[in-house]
Amino acid sequence: MNTSIYINRYISFLLLGFLSLSGLRASAAETSDSLQWKGLGVYDTWEHSPFMTGKLRGNVKAEQGTIAFQRSRYGSNTYGLRIDLSKPFELTPQLKYVHVRILKPKAGRTMLIGLGKRHDRPGQSERTEQFWVYSTQEVTPGQWTDAVFLVKGAGGVDIHSLVVVPDCESTHDLNSDFIAYIGSMAVNGNPVSATLTTSYPLSFAPEGATVPASEGIQTVNAGNIELNVQKPATSSLPRYTALLDSAIDATPGSHLVFSVNGQPAGKESVSVDLNRDGRFSASECFDGTLDVPASTAYGYYRVRIQHGQAVADTRLNVHPQTVTVNQEGRNGEVVMANGQALSALSMPYGKAITVKVVPSHGFTFSGVRVRYGYNLTGEQLQHGTPQYVDRILPRSAFNSKGVGTIPEELIRGDVVIEGLFVSK
């Protein structure tokens, strides 16, 4: 390889990239920097990388608050831009959130690597790898994205350099180099990306993503509830599963212990969006146990279970001990089997009830619709999490006299039973 030609070609490509950056620089500088840098370079975790052995030097150029970095196909999947900080920050047991503005042309995972040293090891290099983390959401190609990285440690470790890996994917299919741009950086306690438009983001694209069956989530237990997530039909399982029709029961003040695949859930493997803002903050991450605050309002809350690389989302149903049951419908009514009216009737939570469907003269019924949950006349979805569910019980679920049972799994939260009446 002619290294000088290679480097000259890189420099030309880098300068062209800056010319094409145009008005995007202003977007990168919209938030003020709280992390300042004193030096720039490149870094690769692969020890035989030509950029670490000195055979090649990476191309980096800073201009007007924006850093351009040449993503090379000759580096490993962890080859990235090294940013030496003017002032290091400490890793603590409490989560911190590193925000990095990134613009890149290619889809793929984005990683942040922290280089630093322990306080009690004066001889340790300031470029010792202390963490590798993926961004909490995808960086959208062609758009400035405020990528957020969750970092923590036992304490006593200062981070002196950050390595931004804009494309943490295999380079085998990378046919040409490209330029990524880095804008403002900050470290704070805010888990929300300034450019995020979706709720409950994942750090990976779920479509088609799999894990080995032995590493997937097959069951989740909490309290007296077991959720069967998925059973392996092949040697792999989906990396992400949404179980938003299911829920884990709890009451305000209750204590829940989670297990995954029959084993105690790991540290910080359970997240519950207790303030229902569409995000999982640091205070909403738990070590496999959850004490539901006594002040928690009744309703459904998004729950995320993480087991290695596998992720499953479900709901937490914080419920009262009794529920209110009503009926509605035209051309007939639904009553209790003994004839008692279903009008703000108080019933035990999770206990089946027997009802009778009574059509008006000239009508029959095709079944009933049961709506259960909370805020039954409001929006069904709150940040994508269902607050109530509709279920149809067909005519075959009732006897010839119109008597049938509403099963216990539908007597959760407020309940409205609607007779589906049709002309004879």
Q: How does this structure look, described?
A:
The chain is mainly beta and 424 residues long. 7% of the residues lie in helices and 46% in strands. The strands form eight sheets. A five-stranded antiparallel sheet has the order 1-4-9-6-7, with no helix packed on it. Strand 28 and strand 29 (385-386) form a beta hairpin. The longest helix is centred in the N-terminal third of the chain and has 19 residues, at 3-21. The model is unreliable at 1-33 (pLDDT under 50).
Number of helices: 3
Please describe the biggest sheet, giving its number of strands, its sense, and whether it closes into a barrel: 5 strands, antiparallel
Strand order of the largest sheet: 1-4-9-6-7
How does the overall form come out from the CA principal axes? elongated
C-alpha-based Rg, rounded:
28 Å
Gap from first CA to last CA: 86 Å
Structural class computed from helices and strand pairing: mainly beta
Portion in helices? under 10%
User: Total number of β-strand segments?
Assistant: 32
Q: How much β-strand is present in the residues?
A: over 45%
Arithmetic mean pLDDT: 87
Low-confidence stretches: 1-33
